[in-house]
Structures are given as C-alpha cells and as structure tokens.
C-alpha cells in the first residue's frame, strides 16, 4: 500500500515540475518575442529627418465633398481654398459630346432628375444631352440628405450657393484649376458601345482641355486605356502592376487606393521613378505615414483636415527609436526579475516559518503513536535509561 502511494506521489510531483517548466519556457518565449518585436516592425515614420520628402500634394477628390456637393464648382472652390493643389473628378460624356462630371452611372443620387425627368431617372447619365443635364439641380440633395453632418456648420450664404448648383462641365472645372495654377486628375468613364460618342470620347475630352486653356501637361488621365491615342499626355494607371508591366507600358504614375498601397510597394515604385498617388486619404495619421513613405500626392475627400497637418505625426529618428526600445526593454527586464525575486523570497520565508512550527520531539512521538504498545514500552524504557 505504502509503496503505491509513494509512486503516485512521485509521478504527480514530476508532472507538476514538467508543467511548471513548460509554463516557464512559454513565458520566456513570449517575453523574448515582445522584446524583439521592434526588430520586425518597419514603420515608415522611423527615419532621419533630412531624408523626409516634401509634403505630398493634396488632390481634392470631387472637390471637398464634405463641405459642398461633390463634383460641383462650389466644391472645387472649397478644395482649392483648403490647400488642394489639384482637383480630381469623374468624367462622363453626354450624348451630344459634352464632358461633364458625374460619379454614378445614373443622375439619381446627386441631382433632381427624379423630379425633372421621372420617366428617365434610371437611364445612364451619358444618354442625356447637355441641355437636359444643365437644367438639373445638383446641390439640393446635399442640403436635404446632409451626408457628412456638415450642413449645420454652413453659413446662410453658403447654403444659398450650394442650393443652386448645377452639374459641372469638365471645361468649367479645368478653367478653375488653370486659374488657381493647379492641376487635374480625370477618372474618365468611357461611354458604352451603343453611345454615339463611344469612339470620340478622347477627342471630346481633349477639346475640353484645350477650350479651358489649361496646359495638357497638368491634366492626368486615368485609367490608362487607349495608350496609343492618349500618347504624350500624362496618364496614370489605377491598378497595382508589376515592375515588368510598368516598364513595358511606359507608365510613370500610379493611382492606388490606400488599402492596396503597402509601404514596401511604394518604396519599390519610387525607386523605379514611378510616382504614386494614394487615394481616399482622409485621416491625419494616414497622411503622415504616406508622407514618410514618400508618396508624391494623395487624393482626399477632406482637404480641410489634411491641410492642418504641418508635419508627420510620430516622426522619430532611428537612434531615438533604438534608445526608447532598449530602455523600455531593460526597465521591463529589471521589473520582471525584481518581482520574481520578491515572490520567491517570501515563499522561502513562509516555508521556513512553517517548518519552525514543527517540534522535532513531536514528530518522533507522532511516528511512535503508530507502533504497538510493546514497542512503545521498549522505547520509553530506552528513553528513560538514556
Ligand atoms: C436635348 O434633348 C431635348 C429633349 O429632351 C431636345 O428638345 C433638345 O433639343 C436637345 N438638345 C440638344 C442640344 O440636342
Ligand atoms: C446662385 O446664387 C447666386 C447668389 O446666391 C447667384 O449669383 C448665381 O447666379 C446663382 N446661380 C444660378 C445658376 O442660379
Ligand atoms: C504655378 O505652379 C508652378 C509649379 O506647379 C510654379 O512653378 C509657378 O511659379 C506657379 N505660378 C504661379 C503664378 O503661381
Ligand atoms: C530615376 O531617375 C534618376 C534621375 O532622374 C536616375 O538617376 C535613376 O537612374 C532613375 N532610376 C531608374 C530605376 O530608372
């Protein structure tokens, strides 16, 4: 019986020891991983100040759509007033060949087409002629639906101006850009094959550029389809391409959504002289990170927010970063060792004080109690005689 108990005790004792060792090893591995993790991070804003590139240009994406209805003159004006140096717009060609600015396929969301042409409201925007399009109101929807909860902040005069906006033609937008010494980025939607301007979309757009009197070098066309015809004009591809494709197609600029533009990709493109524009950048932290990455421009719905970022947030030199990293590691190691020692010290003291409560004689007597009476008598005699 006793032997079996002993064996059991031994087994459970060694398995307890195994468990403790495993926990300790896991703990040390996690601790090491946490300490060394900064080696694996590549944050673009850990760099030396003198290698920081110039501030990325801000492109007003459909103007300043949070402050005024997208793709209208008021909105483009607002973007320029808020520090945008370039304007981005979605171009559609009307049935009579006038390029105008409309983001959706239909006119429903951003005009009152439902009231003016109720029977045709689901038609493609490019199937209307310019007279019809120009008769629509393109501002009331903004005041009514208040998509960014900003209408409250507008003055009465702003609301009046917004309320009477019409659909903007490409010529008017480019004229505004030319007057402000800015540039333009056009997202062109080619008309469908059954459209009368399906073949002449390029000449229609080029006509608008010439009529506006803006230098064609300041107007970037995207997507980069029909390269043969757009030859000589700046074009930007709006998809992620391999360096091989970029070389073959002679692309010098890329427009990418921020979710598709990683730091390493951007570095690679820049090293091959491909300028990168990142789109949908509305938050100061994202703007800061891209600034550190070296992108040449960002396209934003909120130029009024980005203009208030005077310098990248969190820019830190490598040596400062290393210093902070090492110091915090050392402090934390000291703390861990300190807590470990403190706890063990108390445990040992507690065990020792527990031991002291046992009287050696009591232990002997306790052991004796289990023996037979005869043995006990013999032992008592021995004790007395000794
Ligand atoms: C535009 O369409 C309307 C019919 O909706 C027509 O009366 C008008 O003449 C057209 N304008 C042009 C310039 O073609
Ligand atoms: C819109 O209103 C402003 C004044 O508030 C006026 O100057 C302008 O001509 C109006 N535009 C249109 C298209 O009615
Ligand atoms: C227009 O912008 C260019 C650079 O984009 C600059 O060199 C030039 O001086 C500017 N002109 C004026 C009148 O601001
Ligand atoms: C990029 O341009 C610079 C100067 O403009 C040139 O020295 C460099 O060789 C170019 N790099 C590549 C990969 O084409």
UniProtKB/TrEMBL annotation:
It is a multi-pass membrane protein. InterPro entries: GP_PDE_dom, PLC-like_Pdiesterase_TIM-brl. Pfam families: GDPD. The keyword Cell inner membrane does not apply. GO terms for molecular function: glycerophosphodiester phosphodiesterase activity. The chain crosses the membrane at residues 21-41, 323-342. Signal peptide: none annotated. The keyword Hydrolase applies. GO terms for biological process: lipid metabolic process; positive regulation of neuron differentiation. Keywords: Glycoprotein, Hydrolase, Membrane, Transmembrane, Transmembrane helix. It is found in: Membrane. This is Glycerophosphodiester phosphodiesterase domain-containing protein 5-like. Gene3D superfamilies: Phosphatidylinositol (PI) phosphodiesterase. Belongs to the glycerophosphoryl diester phosphodiesterase family. One of its GO terms (cellular component) is plasma membrane. Residues 56-310 form the GP-PDE domain. SUPFAM superfamilies: PLC-like phosphodiesterases (SSF51695).
